[in-house]
Write a structure and sequence with these properties.
Number of domains: 2
CATH superfamily of the largest domain: Glutaredoxin
Number of strands: 10
Structural class: alpha+beta
């Protein structure tokens, strides 16, 4: 087993654990994860600058940056390229695609951030990070993790959907069903007692498959439809 593989396996973070703190050079200067406490953070890695799939992702992240801002989300990119390579690539994308990348991109030359977050998968590459996305909440706890192979670009729609689902869960104490989108019905926690199950079964305001599966529309969604 290689040293990289050993470190990656030992430090792989998990959902509902604190995100590893870091201090790193970026296109916006030295940044720390703790600088963004109070905001949601999308920490995402990409294999390399000036590559086709990564370029399509950054173009879409840049175009839809206002949507991230509206949800109080701070995107932060990571790769093992230098700051100079990042700057050159950002300028190239602005010139050729007409987009301006307004979020920081970390130059992880020593791979400390990539190793701390388990972004290096030796089966894919010993040095290039896979396409990982870490969803970090305002308390700097990891709430969700997505991994993609180097050949597959990420869906911005899905990333935003997950953030909206997590924010809805935190605000209303509910869950979200498969393929949920903002404004659709949410799922209620299952009853914890027989009495609660009987009470729920008689609630005509809920959409129920059975006593253990009930959906409802949030008041803010109902108000928005009026």
């Amino acid at each position: 087993m290689s040293d990289t593989q050993t470190v990656t396996q030992r430090t792989l973070p998990r959902i509902n654990e604190p995100a590893p703190e870091f201090e790193a050079k970026s296109t916006h200067g030295v940044i720390r994860l703790s600088d963004f406490k109070g905001k949601w953070v999308m920490l995402f890695s990409h294999p390399a600058d000036f590559t086709p799939v990564c370029s399509t992702e950054f173009i879409q992240f840049a175009r839809r940056y206002p949507e991230f801002q509206a949800l109080n989300i701070q995107p932060i990119g990571v790769s093992v390229d230098s700051v100079f390579a990042h700057i050159a690539w950002m300028r190239n994308l602005e010139e050729n695609a007409g987009v301006k990348v307004a979020f920081p991109v970390i130059a992880d030359l020593d791979m400390k951030v990539s190793q701390a977050f388990g972004m290096l998968h030796p089966g894919a590459s010993d040095t290039a990070p896979v396409r990982a996305v870490f969803f970090i909440d305002p308390k700097q706890v990891i709430r969700a993790i997505l991994y993609y192979p180097q050949s597959t670009g990420r869906s911005v729609d899905e990333i935003l959907r997950v953030f909206e689902a997590l924010q809805t869960t935190d605000k209303h104490g509910v869950s979200t069903p498969a393929d949920w989108k903002k404004g659709q019905n949410v799922v209620l926690p299952p009853p914890q007692t027989q009495a609660d199950a009987e009470k729920r079964a008689s609630d005509k305001n809920l959409k129920q498959l059975d006593w253990y599966l009930a959906e409802k529309q949030l008041e803010e969604a109902a108000t928005a439809k009026k």
